[in-house]
């Protein structure tokens, strides 16, 4: 009998690991040394490094800011968003593109729900390469490309990571809706050609999203579905979130377009109920 087949020895071994820290893990309680000026440490909600092939999820209150940092220049943050109070309302990529007359995400752009409301908005964007066209990988695409698409294998897919993330909120396979990909971009040429912008890029590019409703975010960090490399390649992603004020009436993003203003008004109407 080995030491770890003995329950008492296994318990002692596990307890001896207390305090061990690895790069990819949540920090509890959350601590970050690089919060923006004016943000007190007590307002920090979430600090986590998401491993290559990992996933993470959190509920964030209205007004919270979520900063994502591509630590090594090769992360792909596939993002799902739900209304935390009523998760049947969720990110609608088609409406996000259609309502804004623009398929390219970045500073000032909105992430809209299927109820015509703003779930989150881009308040800062130091990357400029995002994708609202392609969605994420799945077990079949990864099996075809890498020879293994299993969620427990060496090359997991974004969709299967989403399944793990949504399950933590009582959601199921049918709740994994089309996503946007952050830090990996796609452009569409006039002739319809798809031109990936997949890097790798400079290290430490970042963006900040603002929660316009109480939201659930689910992030999968897996290679972009159009990544041409033969090897499954992605690098860690850092997530930091803190409390912030609700968007005021004169906010420049809120008032930038009539379509966007209407989506913000729909949010405000929701919170009047």
TrEMBL record:
Location of the DUF1989 domain: 48-216
Pfam families in the record: DUF1989
Family matches, as InterPro entries: DUF1989, UAAP1
Superkingdom of the source species: Bacteria
Protein name in UniProt: Urea carboxylase
């Amino acid at each position: 009998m080995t030491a770890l087949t003995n329950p008492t020895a296994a318990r002692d071994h596990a307890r001896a690991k207390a305090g061990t820290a690895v790069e990819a893990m949540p920090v509890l309680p959350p601590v970050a040394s690089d919060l923006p000026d004016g943000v007190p440490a007590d307002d920090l909600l979430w600090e986590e490094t998401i491993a290559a092939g990992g996933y993470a999820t959190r509920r964030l209150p209205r007004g919270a800011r979520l900063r994502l940092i591509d630590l090594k220049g090769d992360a792909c943050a596939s993002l799902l968003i739900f209304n935390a109070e009523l998760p049947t309302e969720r990110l609608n990529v088609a409406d996000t593109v259609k309502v804004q007359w623009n398929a390219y995400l970045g500073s000032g752009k909105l992430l809209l729900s299927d109820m015509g409301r703003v779930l989150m908005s881009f308040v800062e964007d130091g990357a400029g390469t995002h994708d609202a066209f392609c969605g994420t990988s799945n077990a079949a695409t990864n099996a075809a490309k890498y020879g293994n698409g299993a969620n427990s294998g060496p090359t997991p897919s974004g969709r299967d990571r989403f399944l793990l993330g949504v399950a933590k909120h009582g959601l199921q396979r049918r709740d994994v809706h089309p996503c946007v990909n952050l830090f990996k971009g796609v452009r569409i040429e006039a002739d319809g050609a798809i031109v990936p912008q997949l890097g790798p890029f400079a290290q430490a590019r970042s963006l900040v999203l603002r929660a316009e409703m109480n939201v659930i975010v689910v992030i999968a960090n897996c290679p972009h579905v159009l990544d041409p490399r033969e090897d499954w390649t992605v690098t860690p992603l850092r997530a930091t979130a803190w409390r912030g004020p609700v968007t005021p009436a004169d906010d420049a993003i809120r008032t930038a377009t009539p379509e966007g203003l209407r989506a913000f008004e729909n949010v405000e109407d929701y919170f009047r109920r």
